[in-house]
Design a protein that fits this description.
The complex is a heterodimer of chains A (311) and B (269). By secondary structure, chain A is mostly helical. In chain A, 72% of the residues lie in helices and 3% in strands. Chain A has one domain. The chains are: A mainly alpha (311), B alpha/beta (269).
């Protein structure tokens, strides 16, 4: 069996293991949920990277998803996870469709900077809106599933399990997507846009679709983060947040749809421990991790797995 | 009779430079046409205008009686005109097979959905799934041994063939080849052209090819268009055009003399 065909099984196994062992480590559930939510955003970035595009503005959709769900909760008191997920996905998708018309015509540094500019516009707007708590943001009510609270002070397991299942489904969907004709256009567009056009496909159209998918994933990642943390603020759209996603994407590598989740988990681990043991210089630990990755694993952490498998 | 491809008064200027001037050509279905001319004579400009890469400053292009002048390359490709490039345009990081899988994937996506709105699973015109269509195309071009090699590391001749194979995936009615044998050793040239012409004929494509090697032109073309300084100076059957006084002077001129000198030199020894 090839590595490609093995991915769905690998994902299923990872899901099963995560669901089974998580109750044993209640203190890790919060961090793991957060990592999976961010991993979802990075999964969207992986799609863009495979298409040859770097977005420094995924924080836009991450924040939009969170705020859309937060506002719905604030005004209508809706706390149902699936409703909030749908709202977040829909709002980010609609905004991505609109901005996509402009962004799909740009490449390279222009694409990166323009996407960053849009996320900073949202940040700039949110810090001015006092009804939404300006720079402080606001609290999000604990999420419910069919009326049952799934993430409270005492237990995060419900939220963790839900996030796990969503992450699994998204990774699987992305894996399958890369095997469809539209999915296969990603590396083709990265390598040679002229040939894509001369075979009768619209590069701009394909990039637009991919941008919307990536934005929607970021929106879902954002709402899951909001529900997990119980609080949202404009920082989610700030450029450092977007930069963090790019950081995790480089750390994980684009070799496999599971890589963003592994990468995000390791990123959160390093950050947590670095912050705990050296609160003043924790960024240095992250910087070192990045340096080592680029020097020794330019294709990301996932390439380590591939290397080990070959031995 | 109606022509499959027709251009009238195609002119393209770049500032003060006229790259193509008043090019009018009528192409009959199923013909094989050689485009000759020195560098900068306007051959590639002509190909670029017909395939939509360059818009003519003035003039019109008809394909099967429809005006395609304002269309994008992808729209022209979908109508049935495809091309290869002087420098092969491939997906460098993908294997030879995956290059063709991507190409057939686009063909699938552009295929008309069934009455139930479902995109067909089999490549139209080939009746097989993506992967099989790609394997068969590799086979037809004798490239099976390069199946799993990334396109960026393939030898020049193989890249040329793969580029032409990519152009054929869309089942074009008109296939335009820009210097299919340039950068290929002279021993390989005929082998490459044999494969290409065989494959193109099998697809029923009308072929226009840009070529500098007169041996290739006289062997494969039924008709020749000779370009000089952005204009067509001769248009007719291959033997007539290659024997034409003007064509010999402006197009084949120097090279013809070189050959004659070479022959004379060999005889003297």
């Amino acid at each position: 069996m090839t590595a490609e065909n093995r991915t769905p099984l690998l994902l299923l196994a990872a899901l099963a293991v995560a669901l089974v062992i998580a109750p044993v480590f209640p203190q890790w559930q919060f961090l793991a949920t957060l990592a999976l939510a961010k991993g979802m955003t990075v999964l969207g970035l992986l799609l863009l990277l495979r298409t040859g595009l770097v977005s420094f503005g995924q924080g836009l959709y991450y924040c939009l998803g969170a705020y859309a769900a937060g506002i719905v909760g604030l005004h209508w008191g809706i706390t149902d996870v699936f409703v909030l997920l749908l709202v977040a996905a829909a709002v980010s998708a609609v905004v991505a469709v609109l901005l996509g018309f402009l962004l799909a015509t740009y490449r390279g540094i222009f694409f990166a900077m323009l996407s960053l500019a849009f996320s900073m516009i949202l940040y700039g707007l949110l810090v001015k809106v006092s009804a939404l708590g300006s720079t402080d943001g606001f609290n999000v009510a604990p999420p419910t599933l069919f009326g049952l609270e799934i993430a409270g002070k005492d237990s995060q397991y419900g939220m963790f399990a839900l996030t796990c299942v969503i992450a699994f489904l998204m990774a699987l969907a992305m894996h399958r997507y890369f095997r469809t004709p539209l999915g296969r256009l990603s590396p083709a567009i990265r390598d040679n846009e002229i040939r894509v056009e001369y075979l009768g496909a619209s590069v701009r159209g394909a990039v637009h679709v991919k941008y919307v998918i990536a934005g929607t994933l970021a929106g879902i990642g954002g709402v899951l983060t909001a529900m997990t943390v119980g609080h949202i603020d404009p920082e989610m759209a700030y450029w450092t947040t977007s930069g963090e996603f790019v950081f995790v994407a480089i750390l994980s590598g684009t070799g496999n749809v599971a890589a963003p989740f592994v990468g995000a988990f390791i990123f959160e681990l390093i950050r947590t421990y670095a912050y705990q043991y050296s609160p003043n210089t924790w960024q240095m630990a992250l910087g070192t991790a990045m340096l080592l990755t680029i020097l020794f694993l330019p294709a990301g952490l996932w390439s380590l797995y591939e290397r080990l498998r070959k031995v | 009779m109606s022509y499959i491809l027709e251009t009238r008064g195609l002119t393209r200027t770049f500032g003060a430079v006229t790259a193509a001037s008043d090019i009018s050509v009528a192409v009959e279905e199923d013909s094989v046409i050689g485009l000759i001319g020195t560098n900068g004579a306007g051959k590639t400009t002509f190909v670029n205008m017909v395939t939509g890469y360059l818009k003519p400053t003035t003039g019109t292009i008809w394909f099967k009686g429809q005006d395609i002048t304002p269309l994008h390359p992808r729209q022209i490709t979908r109508r049935g005109i495809s091309r290869s490039f002087q420098i092969p345009q491939l997906y460098g990081s993908l294997t030879a097979l995956d290059n063709l899988v991507v190409a057939f994937g686009i063909v699938l996506r552009n295929a008309k959905p069934s009455p139930f709105g479902r995109v067909p699973k089999l490549v139209p015109g080939y009746g097989v799934p993506l992967q099989e269509a790609a394997e068969a195309m590799l086979e037809r071009f004798g490239l099976t041994e390069f199946r799993d090699k990334p396109a960026s590391v393939l030898p020049g001749g193989v890249r040329k063939l793969l580029d032409i194979a990519m152009a054929l995936t869309v089942k074009p009615e008109v296939l335009m080849l820009d210097e299919p044998t340039s950068g290929v050793s002279s021993e390989e040239k005929f082998a490459i052209m044999d494969r290409v012409m065989q494959a193109a004929r099998a697809e029923g494509a009308t072929v226009l090819f840009v070529e500098h090697d007169m041996d290739i032109v006289s062997r494969y073309a039924q008709r020749v268009l000779a370009f000089y300084d952005g204009r067509i100076i001769a248009d007719g059957d291959t033997a007539t055009v290659l024997a034409d006084e003007e064509v010999r002077r402006y197009v084949i001129g120097n090279r013809g003399r070189e050959v004659e000198q070479g022959v004379a030199h060999a005889q003297n020894r």
